[in-house]
Write a structure and sequence with these properties.
- Strands 1-7-6-2-5-3-4 form a seven-stranded mixed β-sheet, sandwiched between helices.
- The protein is of the alpha/beta class and about 240 residues long.
- The model has no long low-confidence stretch (mean pLDDT about 95).
């Protein structure tokens, strides 16, 4: 019985309508209607989990996200996160979260993961942690790549949030599931996930319907697209992989 999650989704959708956000979801048919799956997304904003969850709505699936424990400790967000049955990750005891997520997957849940672990300030796909691939292999479920582009214009790392900004396009693209072949390693599966995420994000960025309004508004574009976001190598991230 879902008591908390549906009202939260309804509230989010109401806010999106009030702000007239131009939300586009492509590839939702790749999310299975039943059964477990790992949904692995790039990470450009503090709002990504909301839009990634929205991307699963056409399939009528509720996504249980893995999120840092501090979010669950907060007096406001904590009860909501627990009520929606998201999974707290204590980096000092990560195995507990992994096993909880694996159990949920085997029960048929969709688990949401941000394998970059932190927001990418370069707005390209950072090097990935192996957790998403390990989860998919352990639970024998599909690994589904997802790219989200646009929410960083509302609230991202190092920028003042603007949650009342109107008419912002948000592109959510879900790719084909990645099925681990027999004998495939976690490392090779993670490499393939990085390749797929980069391809999806490149496509979402290229198809984005608006451009910066002027030189001072180019901060939200990655450097390889003529934006002023830092290059990956300038902030200690591995170089962007070309596909």
């Amino acid at each position: 019985m879902e008591i908390v999650y549906p009202p939260v989704i309804g509230l989010a959708k109401t806010m999106f309508r009030v702000l007239d956000l131009q939300i586009q979801v492509d590839g939702a048919h790749h999310i299975p209607a039943t059964g477990g799956a790992v949904l692995a997304s790039n990470h450009v904003s503090y709002l990504d989990f909301i839009f990634c969850g929205l991307g699963a709505q056409p399939a009528k699936r509720l996504v249980r996200f893995m999120a840092k424990k501090s979010v669950f400790d907060h007096k406001v967000s904590g009860p909501l996160m627990r009520g929606m049955r998201h999974i707290p990750v204590d980096r000092k005891a990560g195995n507990a979260a992994f096993h909880e997520a694996e159990t949920a997957l085997k029960k048929g849940e969709v688990i949401g993961v941000f394998p970059e672990a932190t927001i990418s300030e370069s707005f390209t796909v950072k090097a990935l942690k192996s957790g998403a691939a390990r989860l998919a292999r352990a639970a024998a479920v599909p690994l589904i790549p997802m790219a989200v582009w646009g929410p960083h214009r509302l609230w991202t790392k190092g920028r003042k949030k603007d949650l009342t900004k109107r008419h912002v396009p948000v592109v959510i693209t879900i790719g084909e599931p990645i099925a681990a072949t027999e004998g495939e390693t976690t490392e090779s599966l993670t490499t393939e996930l990085h390749r797929r995420l980069t391809k999806l994000l490149d496509a979402a960025q290229a198809a984005y319907p608006v451009q910066p309004s002027g030189p001072d508004d180019r901060w939200w574009l990655p450097a390889h697209m003529g934006g002023t976001a830092p290059r990956p190598e300038d902030i200690g991230d591995p170089a962007r992989q070309e596909t």
